[in-house]
Amino acid sequence: MRDLPWKTALITGASSGLGRGLARWLATRGVKVFAAARREAELRSLAEECAKMGGNVEPVRLDVADTQRTFATIGRIDVGCGGLDLVVANAGIGHETPATKLTWERVEETIQVNVTGAAATVCAALPRMLERNRGQLVGISSLGGFRGMPRSAAYSASKAFLWVFLESLRVDLSGSGSRVRVTTIYPGFVKSELTAKNRFKMPFLLETDEAVERIARAMARGDAELAFPWQMASVTAAARLLPTPLWTAVAARARPSKKGAISGAP
Ligand SMILES: NC(=O)c1ccc[n+]([C@@H]2O[C@H](COP(=O)([O-])OP(=O)(O)OC[C@H]3O[C@@H](n4cnc5c(N)ncnc54)[C@H](OP(=O)(O)O)[C@@H]3O)[C@@H](O)[C@H]2O)c1
User: Fold this and answer.
1) CA 265 to CA 225: how far, in whole Å?
2) DSSP three-state, residue 97
3) Residue positions annotated with a catalytic role
4) At a CB cut-off of 8 Å and minimum separation 6, what does 184 contact?
5) Ligand 1 pocket, residues with Cβ under 6 angstroms
6) pLDDT in tens, 26-54
7) Which alpha helices (DSSP H) does 56-207 contain, by range?
């Protein structure tokens, strides 16, 4: 792969899964990474792991649901490092929120992290990138955000928010002559702490490192979007075309008790 277009990067949700993998991928290729999450011990172990491979990772304790802190932290880091080249809004949670057992606590927490936290991350970084007329914003949405998936009202809706939010920003920026890029990633099922608790079948489940490699390469190419794996992306593309009554009937047949049924979102 040719030289990477970034010297500095900030990744939220870098203590595990995709965020941790992306932080390691970037740091071991010479990018200075600010790794943000709530679990400091995990971030410290990531920094130590990368240091052994010559990488530079700075742990950043951050709860993205605290928007004031998110703005202050990203602003401070941006000034301190001379401008972040890459900001990845990756932090996310994946509670089930079935309609018959819907609780506000779960819905609210999902919105605070996946919607408010992701939007705050982007809003804290974008104006500074525009001033410099360089930089790249990346959001980790999901294939589960293209339709209302079973038992996943809050999660699916939160990922739909990030998809549309970033798409609209991309439209504005492309028409403005700005060199700031926006990349949205729509993964299918990937092994991580988030999916480890799923008891339903997860077709085409990818290893974390494989998913990280695909995401990192798409980011480095400056792609607008990446949906993967292609099998799940194709199914999702077809599902998007279904009329609502048909989708409702098909998706409603998925029950967690049904052996092998997909009854949740990636
Ligand atoms: N795995 C999949 O199949 C899949 C598919 C599609 C999309 N995604 C998306 O990919 C992203 C990464 O998920 P993952 O699969 O890698 O899951 P994961 O291993 O559970 O990682 C989630 C990360 O988000 C962080 N996080 C959670 N709440 C946070 C908060 N309030 N503030 C800051 N960080 C927070 C966690 O760190 P702390 O707990 O230390 O704060 C953790 O580092 C998520 O947005 C997820 O929705 C995953």
Assistant:
1) 19
2) strand
3) 155
4) 138, 139, 141, 162, 163, 166, 167, 170, 224, 225, 226
5) 12-19, 37-39, 42, 62-65, 90-94, 113, 117, 140, 142, 187, 189-190, 192-195, 266
6) 999 999 999 999 999 999 999 999 999 99
7) 67-80, 104-110, 118-132, 153-174, 193-196
Instruction: Give the separation between CA 148 and CA 126, rounded to whole angstroms.
Output: 29
Output the residue whose Cα is nearest ligand 1's atom 43. Answer: 13
> Token pair for residue 67?
């928007």
Section 60-71 average pLDDT: 98
With CA atoms as reference, report the closest residue to 85 among 183, 19, 175, 162: 183
How many CA atoms lie within 13 Å of 143's alpha carbon, on the beta-carbon side?
Answer: 25
Q: Is 64 exposed, middle or buried (0-12, 13-18, 19+ CB in 10 A)?
A: buried
Of the listed ranges 126-135, 205-214, 216-225, 254-263, the least confidently predicted one is 254-263
Nearest atom in ligand 1 to the alpha carbon of residue 114 is 45
Q: What's 244's DSSP letter?
A: H
pLDDT tens track for 4-18: 999 999 999 999 999
Q: What is the residue with the minimal CA distance to atom 46 of ligand 1?
A: 92
Q: Is pLDDT of 151 > 60? A: yes
Q: What is the pLDDT of residues 160-187, one digit of tens each?
A: 999 999 999 999 999 899 999 999 999 9
Residue 33 three-state SS: strand
